[in-house]
Prior knowledge:
By secondary structure, the chain is α+β, with helices and mostly antiparallel strands.
Amino acid sequence: MERASSSSSESSSSMGSSSSDQTSHFVTSSMLSRTSSSSSSAFGDYIGTESCFDILEENDVVSAPTKPSNRYRYGGRRREEREARAAAAREFPPPIPLLAQTENLLPHMPWVLKRVVTSDGRLILREEKVRHHEYFRAHRANGRLTLDLVAAAEETVVESGGMVGGGGSPRGKCMKSCFVGMTVREIRPMEIGLEPKDAVDWSYRGEGAVNLVLAYTGSSPSFLGKMMRIQKMPNDGKEDNGNTSGNGLTSHEKVIWGECKELVSCQNKEIVEFLFVKHVMRPLLGHKHVNPGMRLLVAKEFLESVENIVTSQRPSWRADAASVDTHRNSVLLMDDLTLFAHGRVEDKPCLSVEIKPKCGFLPSSSFIAEENVIKKSITRFEMHQVLKLHDNEISEISEYDPLDLFSGSKDRIHKAIRALYATPQNNFRVFLNGSLVFGGLGGGTCKTTSKVEQDFEHLLKDIIKTKDGSRANHFIELVAETVYTSGVLDHLLDVQKLDKYNIEGAVHVYYDLINQPCRVCKELEKSKTSSASQFSSMHSIPMAEKVNVLKEFLISATAKDCSVMISFRSTDAVISRSSSHSNLHLESAKQEFDYKVHFIDLDMRPLKKMEVYYELDKKIMNTYLEMVKKKEARGERRAQRQCF
C-alpha cells in the first residue's frame, strides 16, 4: 500500500486523512467484493470455502469502520496503515473448486459440507455437490489439439464462439415461441470415445420401441451416475428413410419444423433428436423436469460389443424385433434418474418410480367418425388393452384409468397408482439404487402376486420405516401424494391436448402436405361407412394451418407416450426444509422425503408415422367394437335363456 505524503499544513493533513479513509474503505469493500464473487456466489455457506466475511448473517451490513475526527487520537496514520495491512493479510485466497466434490467426479478432498442452523440453535452439516467445469471438449484444427472446459451445468450445445443455453417459452403459449431466441449453428458430441472394451461396463436397464437403455456399472469418474440410450434398428430391415437429406429430416419434416432453424440446418440426425427435446419439449414441460442429456461419440465396434453382451439380457420378443443400430456414431448420455446423487453412492437409499401415464383426456374432435364415437367416452388406454389381450401381449386387462391419474383429485390419483401397482405391465416400474426391484423388463409384468408383494415389502424396509405389512400401502400413498403435490401432470396434459383433431382428422392434412391423394378419403368412399365429404374442411384450410396441425399432433404424440420418473430419498425434517430439492411429509408414516420429477422418453415422432398411427387406431377401434358386440350378443342370449 502506498504511503501518503506528509505535510505540516492542516489542509495537507486533512487530505491525507481523507485519502487514508478512502483507502481503508477500498480495502474493505474490495475484499468483500472479491470474496463474494469467488466464494459466496459459487458455493454458499460451505465448510472449507469460507472467508472472514462468510460468518455474517444474511441481513448484516458490512461497511468501513468509522474513523475518529482526530487522526492522532489512536496512533495516527501509521496505526491505520498497519490495520489496513493486517486486514489485507487476513483475506483468504479464493477456494479451489477442483479439490471439491462435483456433480459427476469423485472428490479430491472430503465432501463439501453446507452449514444449516436450525431455529433452536443446532448446527447441521449437510453434504452437497458443487457445480464446476468438469469435462474437456477436444477440437483439432491446423495440427493443434485444443481442450475446452465444459461446465456440468451447461449444455453441450456449441455455437461458433461460445456456449448456448436453452431458450423457449412458457407452457401454453403459441408454438412459435418455442423456437424464439435460438442461435445454435453446430452441436458437437462429447469427444470421449468409447471402445469395444468399454462395453462390459454398461448393463441392460430396459428398452422401448426405439431405444435401448444401459446403466453404467464401471468405475470411471466421467460416467458414474450416468445411463446411455442407444437407438435400435428393426431386424426386418423395413426401416424406410423416405425422402431424406443428410440430416435425416425429410423435406416435409423441414416444413413442419421450419421455425426451428437448428432442426432444419443440423447435419446429423441424432443431433436433430437431441435438439427436439431441448428446444421443443423442454420449454413446454419445464426446464426443471427435462434433461436433454449430451451426445457421446462411440465406435461401431463398441455398439457391436454392446449388442453381443445385452442380447441375452433382453426379452426375447424385443430381441427378435430389433437390434442395436451399429451404424450410429454417437449415443445419448444422460443422468441416471434412478439415483438421487450422481457420481457417488449415497449412504441413504434412493427409490425411483417410472410411470408411463398414457393419454390423459378424452377426444372431442368433430372429425371422429360416427361409428367411432365411443372414443369420446372410453379412454384410448382401455380400448388398447383389449387389442393387447387379443394379440396375447398381456394376460390380464389393467384396471388403471389415465383419467384418474390426470384428474387433480387426490383420491382418484391414489386409485390410479394402486391400479398400476396391481397390474404394472410396462406402465409402472420401481428401482432401488438403480436396480429394478418391481415391474418387468421390456414387456413388463401383468399382475402383482402375493409373493411379489411380500418381497417388495422387505425391500422397502430401509426406505419406509413402518411395520411389516404396511410398507407397500405407504409406498403407494407416497407416490400418489407426490404426483398430486408436484402438479407436473398438469404440464403434461396441456401438451397432450395440443392434439385437437384426433388422428382421424389430422391424417387428412398429412396427405395434403406430402402432396398425395388422400387414401383415407378413398377408403371411406369405398366402405361407405362414413362420408368423405365431412373431411373437406380439413383439406381446404390454408397450408400454414395444416403444418401447425401436424406439428402439434406430433408433439402431442410424444407427450402421450413419454414416462415420468420420480426419485425419493428419506431425510430429516430440518434438512428437508433447507434442501434444494422438493420435499414431502408423509403423515401416515411420519417421515420426510426429498423428491425430484423428470420426464423421459421424449423422442421426436417421424412424420411418416402418421399412417402407422391411423392404421393402429383403426385396429384398436375394430377390436374393441367387436368385443362390445360379442358382449351384447352374450347378454341377449343370457336374457333369452332366463325368459325360458
